[in-house]
Amino acid sequence: MLEAILIFGIINGLIYSLVALGFTTAYGISGIVNLAHGAFFVVGAYLYGLFLQPLSNIIPQEFSFLAPVTAAILSIIITGVIGSIFYRITLHHILGDEVSILITSIIGCVIFQKLIYITMGYAAAFQFRIEPLLSGQVRVLNTYVPSGHVLAAIISLIAFSVLAIFISKTKTGRAMKALSQDLESAMLMGVSTEKMYTFTSLLSAGLASLAGILYTSALTQGVASQMWMQALAISFTVVVLGGLGSIKGSIFGGLIFGIAEYAATKLLPGGGVLQQSIPFIVIIIALLIRPKGLFGKKIEME
Amino acid sequence: MPLNTITKNFRKAYTEFTTRIYDVPPRMLAFLILVMFTLLPYLIPYGRPLREILSVLISANLMAILAVSWDLLVGRTGLISLGHALFYGVGAYGTAILYKYFGWPIWITIPLGMLAGVGIALIIGFPCLRLKGPYLALLTMALPLSVTGFLYYFGDVFGRERGIADLPRVFPGLRLYDRYIADYYLSLALLTICSIIIYKLATSKTGMVFVSILDDELATKACGINVTKYKLMSLAISGLFGSLAGAFYAHMVSGSANPRFFVDPTAILPMENSLVPIIAAILGGIGTIYGPIVGVYLYRLLQDFAFPRIFECLKAIGVTVDVYLQPHIALVAFISIIVLLIVRWPRGIARAIVEWFEDLEEPREVEEILKEKAEKG
After folding, report:
1. pLDDT, tens digit, for every residue of A32-47?
2. How many other C-beta atoms are found inside a 10 Å radius of the C-beta of residue A115?
3. DSSP A253-270
4. Is the CB of A33 less than 8 angstroms away from the CB of B137?
């Protein structure tokens, strides 16, 4: 039992930390609490589902693994572009005004939800099936885990390391890091805030889309247009546990949250219903112990 | 005529208008509007249109109380709450549970429901107010969602999806239309009293402390003021009025308390009760207290009267829109416009309009004004 809780908790936790990754990156670099992250999560999953069907018809049987990969890449790119356009039209003009940013981005979530409802219709907006990436099970120690879960967790780890390498090694990543450390000096060194922030929102929306694809295909096997609230709740919990703006923190936050959630749903009688509320309980306990999160620096992009 | 002369003449006319004709103090103006709304039920023919208009106005009045309480918390104290539906729902459930399990009359259960709102505010305020900035906003948004989970978990007590239905009406003895009129007057009186209380509070010494927390928390702390105490106070007052609105909503409009109050995936606008105060405050001006009332009325006017007309006009042109999609398309159009307006004027649209009108007035010398006053006597 304990072993199952740990294994499932860690796997779920890695996916949860990927859900929060885009959110925390955007805050760490540009200081924007972009609640529209939840909308990009949903949009990404929907686009993936829409592309998957025609692509698997076109691509020959021998290369069937190519269909989900292409669909995912297309979905990530399109969602990234949507995210950067959303940023450029709205949030860019109100940088520094916290209340307006929060309100604008949460209204953005509702706009995307309603657009999905209008374009996809009633039934698809409430339940849209996303096929799992892999079928079958894998044996981890003595526990059998669906292989889709394991794949999602591995992709999540890869995404984390790629992002970390990108930020520390490439020129663009260093420029982003410089902006987060000292805005004015970075601007004096010729880093364009506008370009970098737009690129950050593209990156963040792309990560949200990846998280949406993995989360919906592995954990829920379906997406609904109002799922952005769930995605935001997960992101908040991970971020509060790990500290907003810290990539390292979001992995640990995700792991703690994943294990706590799986333990609570398995150990409590009828705990499945309570799944929605567990983030809140975890947050409250964490806040009472450590008010600033486990890795609670303001900005830390390591 | 050159453009310059036109603007000059317009300015002159506008200045005349504001100084001579429209020289009404704001308090008087508010009173006049109140009188107008008091007479409203007698101006509409008795029957179905009366019922339709009054039912919109009743829920608008109660939503306006919620919006005003949101404004006290966010516009005056700077504590960002994105889940104000929590208090609305707690008020409704508080009174509903006391009625169902104890059978107490509503004039006991409603105040106790309000107390429950204050209690919840204090419970969440204690851990949440240790956080700053975005954390509080994130937590308040996650709260209603989490509470919904609890409602389903303890479904035997809270009644699952259906909630606690068949609550008694505030005026049980009256006939249908008379009951609507009575409900309308009660909601109008509640809105007036609540907004006057909140306005007085916001302009009192306590209110000044709230604003100073919004402006500069560190400086307020340095003045020897217990910031956490005042933040908790603001949250508790906001919770009190928010749950009052919710409790009366359960008894007046819906007749039930259900998870809808917290998060509503099935209605036109999810989290409607959380978002409408925000939209209203933006329309009316954040931090003005009276602004959100105007905002709520404007929102309901557009939603219930203007958009159906627009779709009728479209149908006349030849563009037919699916009846089920209409409210959704209207909503998307409406909130997209709101987003663009926020981007243009972050501190509220009404405030921008007022400032624009003030710019129109001719700049006058102080001596001139004094002379005018002396002429008046």
Report:
1. 888 899 999 999 999 9
2. 18
3. HHHHHHHHHHHHHHHSTT
4. yes
The average confidence (pLDDT) of chain A is 84
Residue B150 touches chain A, beta carbons under 8 Å: yes
Q: Confidence class of residue A212 from pLDDT cuts 50, 70 and 90?
A: very high
B chain contacts of residue A299, beta-carbon cutoff 8 Å: none
Q: Are A244 and B80 inside 8 Å of each other by CB? A: no
Q: Number of A to B CB contacts under 8 A, please give it.
A: 134
Report the gap between the CA of B150 and the closest CA in chain A (Å). Answer: 6
Interface touch B153/A277, C-beta < 8 Å:
yes
**Residue A145, beta-bridge partner list:** A138
Distance CA B186, CA B184 (A): 5
Question: Which chain B residues touch A117 with a CB distance below 8 Å?
Answer: 328
Which tens digit of pLDDT belongs to each residue from A103-161? Answer: 888 888 888 988 988 888 878 878 888 888 777 777 878 778 888 888 899 999 999 99
Distances (CA, A) of B315 to B12, B302, B305, B333, B370: 43, 18, 16, 17, 58
How many angstroms away from the CA of B319 is the closest CA of chain A?
16
pLDDT tens per residue across span A242-263: 877 778 888 888 998 898 888 8
Q: What global pTM score does this model have?
A: 0.84
- For an interface test with B, which of A33, A110, A228 has the most B Cβ atoms less than 10 Å from its Cβ? A110
Looking at chain A, which residue has its C-alpha nearest residue B281?
A: A103
CB A24 within 8 A of CB A298: no
Chain A closest-CA separation from residue B127 CA (Å): 6
The whole-chain average pLDDT of chain B stands at 82
Predicted confidence band at A82 (pLDDT cuts at 50, 70, 90)? very high
Closest residue of chain B to A94, computed from CA coordinates = B343
**Chain B: residue whose CA lies nearest to A231:** B142
Q: Which of residues 231-250 of B touch A (CB under 8 A)?
A: none
- Dist CA A246 CA B146 (whole Å): 25
Query: What's the rounded Cα separation, in Å, for the pair B34 and B50?
Result: 18
Instruction: Give the pLDDT confidence score for residue A302 in this predicted structure.
Output: 38
